Amino acid sequence: MFDKIVAELARALNRKEISSVELTRTFLDRINKYKSLNAFITVDPERSLAQAKAADARIARGEGGALTGVPIAQKDIFCADGWLTTCGSKILSNFVAPYDATTIEKFNKAGAVCLGKTNMDEFAMGSSNETSYYGVVKNPWGIDRVPGGSSGGSAAAVAARLAPAATGTDTGGSIRQPASLTSLTGLKPSYGRVSRYGMIAFASSLDQGGPMCRTAEDCALLLNTMAGFDPRDSTSVDEPVPDYTQGLNQDIKGLRIGLPREYFSKGLSSEVAQVIETAIGEYKKLGAQIVQVSLPNSQLAIPCYYVLAPAEASSNLSRFDGARYGYRAKDYTDLLDMYCKTRAEGFGAEVKRRIMIGTYALSAGYYDAYYLKAQQLRRLIAEDFRKAFESCDVIMGPTTPTTAFKIGEKSDDPVAMYLSDIYTISVNLAGLPGMSIPAGFAPDGLPVGLQLIGQYF
Predict the structure, then answer these.
(1) Are 208 and 191 in contact (CB under 8 A)?
(2) CB-hemisphere CA count at 13 Å for 9?
(3) pLDDT reported for residue 267
(4) Which end of the chain is more exposed for a tag (fewer CB within 10 A), N or C?
(5) What number of other Cβ atoms are within 10 A of residue 414's Cβ?
(6) Closest listed residue to residue 92, CA positions, set 342, 339, 323, 325
(7) How many Å apart are CA 169 and CA 77, to the nearest integer?
(8) How far apart are CA 152 and CA 272, in angstroms?
(9) Are 175 and 400 a contacting pair, CB within 8 Å?
(10) Which of 306, 301, 297, 292 is nearest to 259 (CA)?
(11) Maximum pairwise Cα distance, the chain
């Protein structure tokens, strides 16, 4: 059963071929068996099995839905009532959430079972899942390789069949990049489609929650649950939510696929390029039309993002000071000393780096030169996409420039690490939906992801 996708498990549960309790135990046993992958931060078998028992009762009464009884892993950035919620950071290592994030609330209402909270880069800052206070997550396709980040724990859990699906969050590619490196389907919805209430913020204008699964059908099932307007989130968009499972098998004959020339230039490894070109050839065979498009400002996405995201992070992370909740330094002389020591001891190196960059960019005398200029560039990047969509229906290209790199390979070179998100970041800056789907394997046997970018909603 652990090798079945969500849609198959849902059918088996509704036909009473297996109970949710049995299914949950199967996955909990696998999580325990493969602890060396370090995919999970918190597992609570008693709580998970209680949810599974309640789901079985719902199914027995004929009240089961599409996800009732299905075990789902949750990224440890979503607050879940009674669960340790750490964001992969020492500063929240003792924080038990007193409420549910909207996403968790919706899964609970649907009758899904929470298998546990998955490991992640600290406060979602990273592209390799090496910045977590709880240690590095290993890629099931090669345990000496990174699974990508920041949703690396969710990616590794689904790829290793420790969970049939998981949630992730995407600020600059943190769903799509790990999905690409672990041969999953990962979807970042349009900005505002999934509520950010209870999703601990990194960069508020960029963060978006989404599903990480093995198939498009599973992503559709999860997004049906996750999507929707939430009055508690000021960035949530009041837009009707369609049934995403409709039209999954539509003919794509005549679909115009745009290939940005900037995505197939210097920086893309030849091994990845070959797999992507072969995948594009399959779309041609299915009747799609290939058109060339240009995103001339895409090379500005990395510097633009690494001004805006740290600026928002420096503001969002100011709340973690040891005064109200979370970690507090033991020895201090006064309130200011407590703040300083708590943050110095509680945050990791990458988080400190981004807080300092962001505070600098927002400081007097530099705001116009950096933050305001980055916001202007962001508008140009969004305008590039608008023009491209005048001649195509969907934009296609690689998700990442390389396959999964080795653990530690880029740890001492932040810029090289940042460049692993070069094809994903511009989608977040524009607020568009993006998706990575499995495209095949490079000669080294590691997965390659194909990115699809769509119009808003």
Answers:
(1) yes
(2) 30
(3) 87
(4) N
(5) 16
(6) 325
(7) 8
(8) 20
(9) no
(10) 292
(11) 71
CA distance 104 to 169: 13
Token pair of 87, please? 């964001």
Structure tokens at 120: 């992640």
Inter-axis angle of helices 301-316 and 349-362, nearest 10: 100
Residues paired with residue 396 on neighbouring β-strands, in sequence order: 452
Q: Where are the beta strands (DSSP E) in 57-126?
A: 71-75, 113-118
Please give the model's pTM, rounded to 2 decimal places. 0.96
Closest CA to 304 of 210, 417, 421: 421
Q: Residue 100, Cβ neighbours under 10 Å: how many?
A: 20
| Site of tokens 């549910």 | 100
| Cα separation values, 453 from 77, 160, 171, 332, 359, Å | 25, 27, 15, 50, 32
Joined together, the tokens standing for residue 117 give 């909270």
* Euclidean distance between CA atoms 386 and 382, whole angstroms: 6
Catalytically active residues are 75, 150, 174
Contact between 77 and 21 under an 8 Å Cβ cutoff? The reply is: no
Question: Hey, what are 295's tokens?
Answer: 């995103």
Q: Which residues, including other chains, have CB under 8 Å from residue 199's CB and lie 6 or more apart?
A: 77, 78, 79, 101, 103, 169, 207, 209
pLDDT tens for 16-75 read 999 999 999 999 999 999 999 999 999 999 999 999 999 999 999 999 999 999 999 999
φ/ψ of 31, rounded to 5, equals: -60, -45
Helices H / strands E in the chain, number of each: 14, 11
Q: Tell me the per-residue pLDDT of 301-320, one tens digit each, with 9 for 90 and over.
A: 999 999 999 999 999 999 99
Alpha helices, H only, 147-269: 152-159, 176-181, 216-226
The angle formed by the CA atoms of residues 38, 111 and 94, to the nearest 5 degrees, is: 40
Q: Is 362 exposed, middle or buried (0-12, 13-18, 19+ CB in 10 A)?
A: middle
Q: Which two tokens stand for residue 297?
A: 């400002």
Strand 394-398 to 447-453 pairing? antiparallel
The residues pairing with 113 across neighbouring beta strands, listed in sequence order, are: 71
For 188, counting Cβ atoms within 10 Å of its Cβ (0-12 exposed, 13-18 middle, 19+ buried), the class is buried
The residue type at 303: P
